[in-house]
């Protein structure tokens, strides 16, 4: 009986979940004009099992907002430790790690994954047991789309109190914002893990009408205002926080508080899949291991003011982030990292001149920051995907040695293990894109994932 003919079209695949993607790699290709987008945004169900288990199965096309809404409807004392932007898709966010304002208390989103369903390169649907612990390790923090198509995640939900407290307190440089930021560098990773206090720096006008930098301390505390005030008074009295600066609200209401687009609206907006207003931005990331010297901060603010609409977002680590071993999942940036930096430059028009100007500023800013951030390698967050760090050549000529240049920045010493897992589950590099993990197939070597033959 004749065998069925297999047609091969050599067309690459791009995998899109439910939300936005910094580098656009889920719906574009720099290699081919023809490619296939596997759009998973309609896979968006959320199934919660509360009580003794407090878990949720969420399909990869749901947004964080949809997940948060469903969890809050189940119980006001359940939440999930993930990002502050509700329009982000669950699939990409979790697979890259997943920063959020409860990460000091509960770790990353990926730290709270207990099972998953993935379609591999052979078309098989696998769960944690059938995929094995090595692949399960890799998809938690190793970035989306390198190993298969994750269609659902099983999450461990976390406890949140009836009321949490928030505040946003801003100071310009002239009002002492630089000195406050300097103190923040030393204490933000050491304070109670119930306190998440990030810093946002952006241009503003001072009282004299001159352009300056505004330093915003943007915070959530897992407790009431009285306890928050006690914590700040003990650790950061220089901030001058007062009770009138603080608000108590439910955890689900903080999702709106931290998101500019949904602030002041009903939580029902989290179910709304309408796109946010269109804009353009460029971004990069860094991690800081030692406080930036106080005398250098003025220079950094000066560089910021050279941009048109720059935003620097700095998020503290410490707490659970320092307690989890850097090899527990694929995300590596743990003990010793004080905070991360996200650099953003935003604009409205899509002219080539406007884009080029802002991208040029971003690259210059990134280069200027080199002495003050983590080194050997310089670290980056894979969910803030940055193609300036390097790209694979093509699907047939993907070099592990070349990919180390960017892979070590995202994944540190975990990059080699990621490439070895790729070599086992997808040796033909079916799931390939500009910064996908390259397959590494080693011979007669055991690194925790077995022995393999080389090409």
UniProtKB/TrEMBL annotation:
<dbReference type="InterPro" id="IPR012951">
    <property type="entry name" value="BBE"/>
</dbReference>
<keyword id="KW-0325">Glycoprotein</keyword>
<feature type="domain" description="FAD-binding PCMH-type">
    <location>
        <begin position="1"/>
        <end position="160"/>
    </location>
</feature>
<dbReference type="InterPro" id="IPR016167">
    <property type="entry name" value="FAD-bd_PCMH_sub1"/>
</dbReference>
<dbReference type="GO" id="GO:0016491">
    <property type="term" value="F:oxidoreductase activity"/>
</dbReference>
<dbReference type="GO" id="GO:0071949">
    <property type="term" value="F:FAD binding"/>
</dbReference>
<dbReference type="InterPro" id="IPR036318">
    <property type="entry name" value="FAD-bd_PCMH-like_sf"/>
</dbReference>
<dbReference type="InterPro" id="IPR016169">
    <property type="entry name" value="FAD-bd_PCMH_sub2"/>
</dbReference>
<keyword id="KW-0274">FAD</keyword>
<dbReference type="Pfam" id="PF08031">
    <property type="entry name" value="BBE"/>
</dbReference>
<dbReference type="InterPro" id="IPR016166">
    <property type="entry name" value="FAD-bd_PCMH"/>
</dbReference>
<protein>
    <recommendedName>
        <fullName>FAD-binding PCMH-type domain-containing protein</fullName>
    </recommendedName>
</protein>
<comment type="similarity">
    <text>Belongs to the oxygen-dependent FAD-linked oxidoreductase family.</text>
</comment>
<dbReference type="Pfam" id="PF01565">
    <property type="entry name" value="FAD_binding_4"/>
</dbReference>
<dbReference type="InterPro" id="IPR006094">
    <property type="entry name" value="Oxid_FAD_bind_N"/>
</dbReference>
<keyword id="KW-0732">Signal</keyword>
<keyword id="KW-0285">Flavoprotein</keyword>
């Amino acid at each position: 009986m004749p065998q069925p003919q297999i047609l091969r079209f050599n067309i690459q695949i791009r995998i899109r979940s439910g939300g936005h993607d910094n580098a656009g790699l889920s719906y574009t290709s720099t290699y081919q004009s023809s490619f296939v987008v596997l759009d998973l945004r309609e896979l968006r169900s959320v199934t919660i099992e509360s009580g003794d288990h407090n878990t949720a199965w969420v399909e990869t096309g749901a947004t964080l907002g949809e997940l948060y809404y469903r969890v809050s409807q189940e119980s006001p004392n359940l939440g999930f430790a993930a990002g502050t932007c509700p329009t982000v898709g669950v699939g990409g966010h979790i697979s890259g790690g997943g920063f959020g304002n409860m990460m000091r208390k509960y770790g990353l989103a990926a730290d709270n994954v207990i099972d998953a369903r993935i379609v591999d390169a052979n078309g098989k649907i696998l769960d944690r047991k059938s995929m094995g612990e090595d692949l399960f390790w890799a998809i938690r923090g190793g970035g989306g789309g390198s190993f298969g198509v994750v269609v659902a995640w099983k999450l461990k939900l976390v406890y949140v109190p009836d009321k949490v407290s928030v505040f946003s307190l801003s100071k310009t440089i002239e009002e002492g914002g630089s000195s406050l930021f300097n103190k923040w560098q030393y204490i933000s990773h050491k304070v109670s893990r119930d306190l998440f206090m990030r810093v946002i720096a952006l241009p503003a006008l001072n009282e004299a009408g001159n352009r300056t930098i505004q330093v915003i301390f943007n915070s959530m505390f897992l407790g009431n205002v009285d306890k928050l005030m006690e914590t700040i008074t003990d650790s950061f009295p220089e901030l001058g926080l007062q009770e009138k600066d603080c608000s108590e609200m439910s955890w689900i209401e903080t999702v709106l508080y931290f998101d500019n687009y949904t602030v002041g609206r009903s939580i029902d907006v989290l179910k709304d899949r309408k796109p946010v207003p269109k804009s353009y931005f460029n971004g990069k990331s860094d991690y800081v291991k030692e406080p930036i010297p106080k005398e250098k901060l003025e220079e950094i603010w000066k560089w910021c003011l050279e941009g048109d609409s720059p935003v620097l977002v700095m998020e503290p680590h410490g707490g659970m982030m320092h307690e989890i071993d850097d090899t527990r999942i694929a995300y590596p940036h743990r003990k010793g990292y004080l905070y991360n930096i996200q650099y953003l430059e935003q604009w409205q028009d899509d002219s080539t001149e406007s884009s080029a100007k802002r991208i040029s500023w971003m690259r210059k800013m990134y280069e200027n920051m080199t002495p003050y951030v983590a080194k050997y390698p310089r670290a980056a967050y894979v969910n803030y995907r940055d193609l300036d760090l390097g790209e694979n050549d093509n699907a047939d000529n993907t070099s592990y040695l070349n990919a180390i240049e960017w892979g070590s920045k995202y994944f540190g010493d975990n990059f080699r293990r990621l490439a070895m897992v790729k070599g086992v589950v997808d040796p033909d590099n079916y799931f390939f894109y500009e910064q996908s993990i390259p397959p590494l197939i080693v011979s007669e070597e055991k690194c925790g994932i077995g022995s393999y033959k080389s090409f």
